[in-house]
Specification:
The structure holds 2 protein chains of 2 kinds.
Chain A lengths: L2 H26 L10 H13 L6 H33 L1 H16 L6 H7 L4 H25 L3 H9 L4 H38 L5 H10 L3 H29 L1 H11 L3
Helix pairs in contact in A: 2-10, 3-4, 3-6, 3-8, 5-6, 6-8, 8-9, 8-10, 9-10
Chain B lengths: L1 E11 L4 E12 L4 E5 L6 H8 L7 E6 L2 E2 L7 E4 L13 H12 L3 H14 L15 H14 L4 E5 L7 H18 L2 E6 L2 H7 L2 E5 L6 E6 L10 H4 L1 H22 L5
Parallel strand pairs in B: 3-8, 3-9, 6-7, 7-8
Antiparallel strand pairs in B: 1-2, 1-4, 4-5, 9-10
Classes of the chains: A mainly alpha, B alpha/beta.
Bound molecules: adenosine-5'-triphosphate and magnesium ion.
């Protein structure tokens, strides 16, 4: 990509959010509504609300615990989901056994399981992490199974005839070949995970971003509550960006094939 | 080196059975270059997969280096018909060639030497870091051949490797196979549906009938060892041999289309 093309791409990415923020700023500026304060006011209290207080600042006492629970749950779900997906995807017998159960979970959109999960979420960190694991697991597992099943038979024969089997086969063939589907599952799981992180903190918790937002709401600190929502949005955007960077690296070959086909290859 | 005795293969699925091979018997001696020719759909790929231990036969036996085959035999390399799909798209050309060597247990320096050598042999010394999907069909096929060569096999099986490349590339690749065989002396079984190619490349041609498939003919190619795309193909003996193979295939088709099927 040339410098000009890069700049244009960057401009395209930033343009719409910038316009929306500006619109929010202008239309809310004279707002008298209690629940919709001017954005100017929200931005003004944001630094004090999240960054003041050194080691006691909310960015440390609330954002970090949230992030830690999210990443722990997400990481566990990724390991378990990909591992189980590899097993189920490569064993026809196992697949026949669990397929009916998987069918049900495939039909249920992951966010729809949130209320149930929240109902079982306890106060301790472990329960919250387990809620995130449970929610993130299904998209990862289902997509991994699909990816493993779709391994090209010619590549599988190539491995067999060159004596490539066992862990080497999983590393060189199965995981790489299934990586587009695995990444799709991980991407879906990331948004489910963020939702579950927030919601699980809104009910029984002593810290976290979700907890903070609810605290502000209960104490009628409305501009501060809005800053919590903005922090959440920023966190989501940042995680999505990190994910895209990783994905672009992992799936470089896949994008390469697709653009080679597009250009008439 | 390679022995096929009474090989029969029937594919069965719920609603139909296909007798791909009826009764195949032939053998290939160590160091030979044999072409296996037969009409499209006669079961060439099926036969090759049985030889490679990728498919279990319904009847008969395959022996490689004296041992009965019931899984991929070590020391055998296969170049598949769908060469584009047999390369790992997430690996570079060099990594594709290197992968089987890792599993064979070669050290790093040895692997490097074999990969560089094989890529140079097929004329791809300058593209080790390209990905397969960045290459033309002919170049992809050469990567698959380089991978087989680097493996230092005792037996090499090739399934219509040049079916999908243009005429000039095809002629170049044919000469490449002759040259490499001449130098390494690796036992080679080359499958094709092209009669001219079979006679030009082989030291011997095994002719398969159309389905139900049996060995129709097995004839030595008594052309000079030094082959040349123009001179060899212009030889009267070349024309005689290709006419004979052509006649055999025609006869087989007539026999197959007779109502009693015999
Ligand atoms: N997995 C399979 N299941 C059922 N039938 C099969 C299967 N593979 C091949 N066949 C059938 O067996 C016969 C021989 O197929 P095969 O691919 O071995 O032929 P071929 O000589 O290699 O053909 P081509 O020249 O097109 O490559 C065909 O009739 C084909 O339809
Ligand atoms: Mg075939």
């Amino acid at each position: 990509m040339s410098v000009g093309a890069r700049l244009r791409r960057a401009a395209e990415v930033v343009a719409l959010p910038a316009v929306l923020l500006a619109a929010w700023w202008v239309t809310s500026d004279g707002s008298e509504s209690f629940y919709f304060p001017p954005l100017r006011e929200v931005v003004a209290v944001l630094p004090d609300t999240w960054f003041a207080g050194g080691a006691d600042a909310r960015i440390v006492s609330d954002v970090l615990p949230s992030l830690a629970r999210l990443l722990t749950g997400y990481g566990l779900a990724a390991v378990v989901g990909v591992g189980a997906g590899l097993l189920i995807g490569s064993s026809p017998v196992l697949r026949a056994l669990v397929e009916p159960v998987l069918e049900v979970f495939r039909a249920v959109p992951p966010p729809a399981t949130v209320p149930l999960l929240v109902a079982v979420a306890g106060i301790d960190d472990l329960m919250k992490v387990l809620v995130i694991v449970f929610g993130c697991l299904w998209p990862i597992l289902l997509n991994t199974v699909e990816g493993v099943r779709a391994v090209d038979p010619v590549l599988a024969d190539t491995c067999r005839s060159y004596g490539i089997r066992g862990p080497g086969r999983v590393r060189s063939l199965v995981l790489r070949s299934a990586s587009p589907q695995i990444m799709t599952g991980l991407r879906q799981a990331l948004s489910v995970g963020i939702i579950l992180m927030v919601i699980s903190e809104m009910f029984a918790a002593s810290n976290g971003i979700g907890f903070t937002v609810v605290q502000f709401q209960r104490t009628f600190a409305v501009p501060q509550m809005w800053t919590g929502i903005i922090v959440l949005g920023l966190l989501g955007v940042t995680l999505a960006w990190v994910f895209r960077v990783v994905e672009a690296r992992v799936l470089r070959w896949y994008e390469g094939i697709r653009s080679a086909h597009r250009s008439g290859g | 080196m390679l022995e096929v005795r009474g090989l029969r293969k029937v594919y069965t699925s719920q609603d139909r059975t296909v007798e791909a091979l009826r009764d195949i018997t032939f053998s290939v001696a160590a160091g030979e270059l044999v072409c296996l020719v037969g009409p499209s759909g006669c079961g060439k790929t099926t036969l090759l997969k049985c030889l490679a231990g990728l498919l279990g036969p319904t009847g008969g036996e395959v022996r490689v280096e004296g041992r009965s085959v019931n899984g991929p035999p070590p020391g055998m390399a296969v170049v598949f018909q769908e060469y584009g799909r047999s390369l790992f798209p997430w690996m570079t050309v060099a990594q594709n060639v290197e992968l089987p060597l890792r599993h064979k247990g070669h050290g790093r320096a040895e692997r490097r030497r074999l990969v560089t050598g094989a890529l140079a042999d097929v004329g791809l010394a300058h593209t080790p870091d390209a990905y397969p999907w960045q290459l033309s069909g002919g170049m992809q096929q050469r990567v698959a051949i380089a991978r087989a060569l680097a493996y230092e096999p005792h037996v090499m099986l090739m399934d219509e490797p040049f079916a999908a490349v243009d005429a000039q590339t095809r002629a170049d690749l044919e000469d490449l196979i002759r040259t490499l065989w001449d130098r390494t002396g690796v036992t080679t079984l080359f499958v094709t549906h092209d009669i001219d190619e079979a006679v030009y490349l082989g030291e011997r041609v095994v002719v398969l009938s159309s389905s139900p498939t049996v060995v129709q003919d097995d004839l030595p190619v008594d052309l000079p060892r030094e082959r040349d795309q123009l001179d060899t193909r212009a030889m009267p003996r070349f024309t005689e041999l290709r006419s004979r193979v052509y006649g055999e295939i025609r006869a087989a088709q007539r026999a197959a289309s007779r109502p009693d099927g015999a």
